[in-house]
Specification:
Layout (H helix, E strand, L loop, with lengths): L1 E7 L17 E8 L5 H7 L2 H11 L10 H9 L4 H5 L4 H11 L19 H19 L8 H16 L18 H11 L1 H4 L4 H22 L17 H7 L9 H13 L2 H7 L6 H4 L5 H9 L8 H13 L10 H9 L5 E2 L11
Parallel strand pairs: 1-3
Antiparallel strand pairs: 1-2
Helix pairs in contact: 1-5, 2-6, 3-12, 6-7, 8-12, 10-12
Pfam family, one: DUF924
InterPro entries: DUF924 (IPR010323), TPR-like_helical_dom_sf (IPR011990)
């Protein structure tokens, strides 16, 4: 089967420009056949334009917008399908990258990004974060979910590069987003940290906690408000807190910006006790083909099997592992759903509108 993908950037009322002279231009993604792909195929798909698209799929406001707490919480924590629909364009890149490298190779994706000195580096680096860390979590269904951890490892390898840069050149640095509002940058910087919060490593969880503490202090200085974790008014975190927090979000309350920021920080911090306790996320055991310990089974039951793969999917993973195989990305429900979203002729037209009152 062959697939032609293109992106249509159109609209006379633009909320923000992607780059000069990109309006109303059709970008043709390469035709490819199911099966093996070469890295040149990946480079033809993971382009600056795609990474910009991924950035704007996750953070839909212009950099000059003073994002409210209500906007932040609603966009990031509600159950609507806006983000999953907007990020569907990631599917061809994820599939081709996984096929080109295979499950036993963790690719170095630095080559898809410009130099840290390039003005486009922060935005494209954030788009790469969305591509590798966020898109798999909303797009992969069924047996495809096994690939999420592969993209996590790919993303973590990239973060090793970021942490090796001088602080001012790291893509989440405040100076890197000097033209944006404080609120916009805080959303960006907080979201960048999700890659570290998703890692099954105590060392990475400590890096995540340290980064969140830095952000917490900056927001406290900006807002003049103290995070409730300071005075003990926020309950101490344990291995069950993260599930409880994300399962009981009151979207209707009055979310000031600082309150939304502190809540986002709390969600990231709540990942750490799980890894501190188990050294891994028990809910991922099924999709990874791992045996759960007695304590992990207790956690899984107590959390209502939160985010756990269905038994039939777990069975397929175990069969793959016994056979020494890995079902290629695209053989779960993901590809069917993605292609349905892309359209019958398998072309993707995304109109990015820029009226202040409109959203993607």
């Amino acid at each position: 089967m062959q697939a032609n993908f293109h992106v249509q950037l159109s609209g006379s009322h633009t909320r923000r420009n992607l780059t000069p002279n990109l309006e109303s231009k059709i970008i043709h993604w390469p035709t490819y056949k199911a099966g093996k792909f070469a890295m040149q195929d990946v480079h033809a798909i993971i382009t600056p334009l795609l990474l910009q698209q991924m950035c704007r799929a996750r953070i839909t406001w212009p950099p000059t917008h003073h994002i409210s707490g209500k906007e932040w919480i609603t966009d990031f924590f509600s159950d609507d399908s806006r983000f999953s629909n907007a990020v569907t364009g990631a599917w061809p890149a994820l599939k081709v990258l996984s096929h080109a490298c295979g499950p036993d190779t963790v690719p170095d994706v630095r080559g898809f990004l410009p130099s840290p000195e390039d003005p486009g580096f922060p935005e494209q680096a954030f788009g790469m974060h969305v591509l590798l860390d966020q898109a798999p979590r909303v797009l992969f269904k069924g047996i495809d979910g096994r690939w999420t951890s592969w993209f996590d490892r790919t993303s973590r390898k990239l973060y090793g590069y970021y942490y090796g840069l001088p602080e001012r050149q790291r893509p989440w640095a405040r100076d890197a987003w000097a033209g944006s509002t404080f609120e916009y940058w805080t959303c960006i910087a907080s979201e960048f940290n999700a890659t570290m919060a998703h890692q099954e490593s105590r060392g990475d969880q400590q890096l995540s906690a340290s980064r969140i503490e830095q952000l917490r202090r900056v927001v406290e200085d900006f807002s003049g408000r103290c995070d409730p974790v300071r005075d003990g008014s926020s309950p101490p975190l344990d291995e069950y807190s993260m599930i409880d927090i994300v399962s009981h979000i009151d979207l209707d309350q009055d979310w000031s910006f600082h309150k939304a920021a502190f809540f986002s920080f709390l969600v990231d911090d709540a990942h750490k006790p799980i890894i501190d306790r188990f050294g891994r996320y028990p809910y991922r055991n099924a999709i990874e083909g791992r045996e759960s310990t007695t304590d992990e089974l207790k956690w899984i039951r107590k959390t209502g099997h939160f985010a756990e793969a269905e038994p039939e999917v777990a069975k397929r993973v175990r069969q793959d592992m016994a056979a020494g195989t890995w079902t290629p990305l695209g053989e779960g429900a993901t590809e069917r759903d993605a292609l349905e979203n892309i359209s019958p002729d398998m072309s993707l037209s995304i109109a990015i509108r820029t009226e202040p009152a409109q959203r993607l």
